[in-house]
Specification:
mainly alpha; 17 helices; 59% helix; elongated
C-alpha cells in the first residue's frame, strides 16, 4: 500500500478547478474558497458517519447503561464536538480573504451556494430539525435538484437522534414513584425549587408543574413527561456513578447545538462583512436569512431548558438509600 494511492490523492488534489481561470480572469483567493468548502464537506462526511453510528446504537430495543455502549456513544459524540470546533475555526482562515478578493470571483459562482450542501442538511435532519421547524421552509429546498429535494424531504420520515434520546430517557431504570421522606420526589423537589425562585420568577413554578407533574402531552415537544423527568434527574444527580455517562451524553448534545449555533453566527457575520446586505449567490436574503436560521434552528432546546429548573446541590433532596445504592458503582 502506497500513501498517495491509499488516500487517493490524485483525485483529491486535482479536484480544485478555478472558475476564474476558465474565464482567463484569475482570482487568487478562489483556491482558498474551494479548499475550505471541500474541507467542510469532508468533515461533514465524518460527522455524519459518527452520528449515524450513534443512531444505530440508540435504535436498539434496549441499551444497558452499565455497558460499553453508552461509553461508545460518548466517545463518538466527543469526536463530533471536536470536529465542530474545527469547523468554527475554519471561518478564521476564510476571513483572511477580503471582500474585494471575494468580489473577484463571487458572481461566477451563481447560482451555486453553500445553502445547497446536502450533507449539512442531512446532519440537521439526523439530529432532529424537522422540515416544519426550518426557517424559510418554502425556500429551504427550492435551490436543490429534484433528486436532492426528494431525498431531503424523505428524511422527515426517519427517526431522529432527538427522538431516540427521548425514547432512551423514557426507559431509564428509575422507579415510577421515587419517595422522599414519604412524599413523591417530584412534588418534594417542586417545593424546594419553588423556594429558590425570585419575585419575577414565580410563574416558573407553574411551568415546572406543567412539564414534570401534570402528565399531559405538550404540543410541539418531543420529550414525554417521563423523558423530561429522567433528563432532569440525571442532570441534578450527575455525580452519582451510574448517571455520569448518561449526563455526558446529554451534555454532548448541548455542545453540538451550541457549536452549530456558533458556526451559524460566525457564518452570518462573515457574510455581512463580505457582501453587506446583498443577496446570497443561491438567491437567499443573505445575512437576514442566516440570522433567523441561527435563532430558530436549535435542536436540543428541551435539554437546554432543564437548567431553568435546577437548584443548588446543597438543597437537593436526599435519595432513598436503596436507590442511591443502585446508582453507585455496585448498582
Amino acid at each position: 500500500m502506497y500513501y498517495s494511492s491509499y488516500l487517493q490523492l490524485d483525485k483529491i488534489l486535482n479536484a480544485q478547478e478555478l472558475e476564474s481561470d476558465k474565464r482567463n480572469q484569475h482570482a487568487h483567493d478562489e483556491m482558498l474558497f474551494i479548499v475550505i468548502h471541500q474541507a467542510y464537506e469532508l468533515w461533514f462526511k465524518q460527522v455524519l458517519f459518527e452520528v449515524r453510528s450513534v443512531h444505530g446504537i440508540l435504535s436498539q430495543p434496549e441499551i444497558n447503561d452499565n455497558s460499553p455502549e453508552l461509553a461508545t456513544i460518548n466517545r463518538r459524540l466527543t469526536r463530533v464536538v471536536e470536529i465542530l470546533k474545527v469547523l468554527v475555526h475554519q471561518i478564521d482562515i476564510l476571513e483572511t480573504m477580503t471582500p474585494l478578493d471575494f468580489l473577484e470571483f463571487r458572481d461566477m459562482l451563481r447560482p451555486a451556494s453553500g445553502f445547497q450542501s446536502m450533507q449539512f442538511k442531512e446532519l440537521e435532519a439526523a439530529l432532529g430539525l424537522r422540515m416544519e421547524q426550518r426557517h424559510g421552509r418554502e425556500y429551504y429546498t427550492s435551490q436543490l435538484t429534484p433528486d436532492d429535494k426528494t431525498r431531503i424531504e424523505g428524511l422527515n420520515a426517519h427517526q431522529t437522534i432527538l427522538e431516540l434520546v427521548s425514547a432512551w430517557l423514557d426507559r431509564m431504570p428509575f422507579d415510577d414513584h421515587i419517595s422522599v421522606e414519604g412524599k413523591d420526589f417530584w412534588a418534594a423537589y417542586g417545593d424546594v425549587y419553588g423556594s429558590t425562585l425570585q419575585e419575577g420568577e414565580r410563574e416558573n413554578r407553574k411551568v415546572y408543574e406543567q412539564l414534570f407533574t401534570d402528565g399531559g402531552v405538550l404540543e410541539g415537544r418531543v420529550f414525554t413527561q417521563s423523558a423530561r423527568r429522567a433528563a432532569l434527574f440525571i442532570t441534578l444527580y450527575r455525580d452519582l456513578p451510574m448517571l455520569q455517562n448518561p449526563y455526558r451524553l446529554l451534555n454532548h448534545l448541548l455542545e453540538i447545538d451550541e457549536l452549530l449555533a456558533n458556526w451559524r453566527w460566525r457564518h452570518m457575520n462573515m457574510v455581512h462583512r463580505m457582501v453587506g446586505m446583498r443577496m446570497g449567490t443561491g438567491g437567499s436574503s443573505g445575512k437576514g436569512y442566516l440570522r433567523e436560521a441561527a435563532i430558530k434552528h436549535y435542536v436540543f432546546g428541551e435539554i437546554a431548558e432543564l437548567t431553568s429548573f435546577m437548584v443548588p446541590r446543597r438543597l437537593l433532596p436526599g435519595l432513598p438509600e436503596e436507590l442511591e445504592s443502585r446508582l453507585g458503582f455496585n448498582g
